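From the pipeline queue, job 12 of 40. The input is one protein chain; the requested action is below.

Action: predict structure.
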Amino acid sequence: MHEHEPRAQFTHMEDGTAEDWKIISQAFGGFARELPDRVIEHLKLLEGDCGGFPVDRLTHCLQTATLAHRDGQDEEYVVCALLHDIGDTLGPYNHADVAASLLEPFVSEENHWMVKHHAIFQGYYFFNHLGLDRNLREQFRDHPCFERTVEFCAKYDAAAFDPEQETLPLSFFEPMLRRVMASPKRSLYKKSLDPQPAEQNA
C-alpha cells in the first residue's frame, strides 16, 4: 500500500539529511492523524473478552464512560474513562500504565495521573480477596490527585459491571475521542508539529 511513497535514503540515522527528515516528517503527519482510528480499532479488541467479569471489557469501558458522561464530566475526562482499560490486551500486568502512556500527550496532568494510578486505587475493592493490601492507595494520600482518583474508581470504574446498566455505544464517544486526540498538549515533538508563524498568518 505504501510502496510508492517517498522514503529516506539513510541506513543509519547519523547519515540522515534534512531532506530525509522532511520526507519522514511529512509521512508522520498522516500517520498521526490516523491515531484515533487505531485507538478505536484496538478498543474493539476488548469486545467479547470477559475475563471472568460480569460484562466484557469493552462494555466495562463504555459503561465507565457513560457514567462519567451522565454525571457531567467534561469530554477529556470521559475519554479517559473510555480508554482507562485499553491496555488490558497488551499490558495485562500494567494495563493502567499502557492507557496512561497513550493518553499522556492529550490530557491534563491530573487526568493522566488518575488513569496511571487507577489500578492501585481500584484495588481497594478487591485486593483483600487476593491476599494483597487493599490500602495500597494510601501511599498517595497526600497527592493532589488522590481524591480525584478515589472518586473515579468509586463512581465510575468500580460501578461499571452491570449487564442491565445503560451503556452508550462506542459511536457515541467516537467524536469526543477524535476531538481530544486531535492535537497533543504535551509531546517531545510538539514544537516541531506546531504551525510556524508564516503558516498561521497565511
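Job complete. The chain is about 50% helix and 0% strand.
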